[in-house]
Design goal:
single chain, 302 residues, alpha/beta, Arc Repressor Mutant, subunit A, D-Maltodextrin-Binding Protein, domain 2, 11 helices
Length: 302
């Protein structure tokens, strides 16, 4: 059946129904009668020539065509919302930057990576979300985010059209509160055998490098905790629950914020920090400022 063209109001109703999972909830959200929404969905199916939703129990689920249509509708309407936000920000004299921050990324590193946005001619309004790496990439792909800050790059072969930009890398240190650190400073790193450690979870990019370093030096730590959330790991470290690894470039900040001091340097274990962006026709000035600062070496340890 030849398409008669898409009515974008009908497509918007489909988008809301797909998100809500039922016509009833979608109608409540839209402030319309259930019959009105159902009629508009039927007209959309007729225009496209395919059913986009099908009943399954009390819910409506996407057909294969519906899943494809939803991926385009996400981009259309999320971009529309971003346009409205951008226009509102322009009236207020601000620029909005929506940032996804990987939960494994040290928050001090995230601040350092965003610091260049504070020096643009137009003030930047930061909107920051924290989540797992894969969830943030999915949001970036449909333009919910302008950039993702993380400690890993995107693996080659992914179907997502996103791009990894290495901002900087840093050697690491072992740190801990003074009372704990004093016990393990002498004869470092052999002194760490049996020491209590707070480590990133095993799905963290840094964890594999840490385990290799332990093995190389014959160190068998007493693992007191494993964490996906770096901020939670540092909270336990600040309260003396164990030693932990931290970026050497941020050693002074780690001491000031967490009261943790150097136990010993670990130059063989390096952390990488990335900005993940999506190819866009209009480049975001704040993202460009972050990438320009990295190219000029602004993030490298002084």
């Amino acid at each position: 059946m030849k398409s008669t063209g898409i009515n974008f109001r009908h497509l918007y109703y489909f988008w809301v129904v797909a998100k809500e999972g039922s016509v009833t909830r979608a109608a409540e959200r839209l402030g319309l009668a259930v019959q009105t929404v159902s009629t508009q969905l039927a007209l959309l199916d007729q225009a496209i020539g395919k059913a986009l939703l099908m009943p399954e129990g009390r819910r409506l689920v996407l057909t294969e065509a519906g899943r494809l249509a939803l991926s385009y509708a996400d981009q259309i309407f999320l971009l529309g919302e971003q346009m409205q936000e951008a226009l509102a920000d322009a009236d207020s004299g601000q620029m909005r930057l929506t940032v996804g921050i990987s939960d494994s990324l040290p928050k001090l590193s995230a601040y350092r990576m965003l610091e260049p946005t504070r020096h643009l001619d137009m003030p930047v309004r930061l909107v920051c979300y924290e989540d797992q790496f894969e969830a943030l990439l999915a949001d970036l792909a449909v333009h919910k985010l302008d950039v993702v800050l993380t400690d890993r790059d995107v693996r080659s072969g992914t179907s997502l059209r996103v791009f990894s930009h290495l901002l900087f890398e840093s050697e690491t240190i072992v740190a801990g509160v003074p009372a704990l650190a004093r016990k393990y400073t002498k004869r470092f790193p052999e002194s760490l055998d049996g020491a209590p450690f707070l480590l990133p979870a095993r799905n963290n990019a840094l964890r594999g490098r840490i385990d290799e370093w332990f093995s190389l030096h014959g160190v068998r730590p007493d693992i007191a905790g494993e964490f996906e959330d770096n901020a939670l790991l540092n909270t336990f470290g600040r309260n003396g629950a164990g030693l932990f690894f931290a970026p050497a470039a941020l050693a002074a900040d780690v001491q000031a914020q967490y009261g943790a001091v150097l136990v010993g340097p670990v130059p063989q274990v390096r952390e990488q920090y990335y900005a993940i962006s999506k190819e866009r026709r209009i480049k975001h000035p704040a993202v460009e400022a972050i990438l320009a600062a990295a190219a000029q070496g602004a993030f490298n340890p002084g």
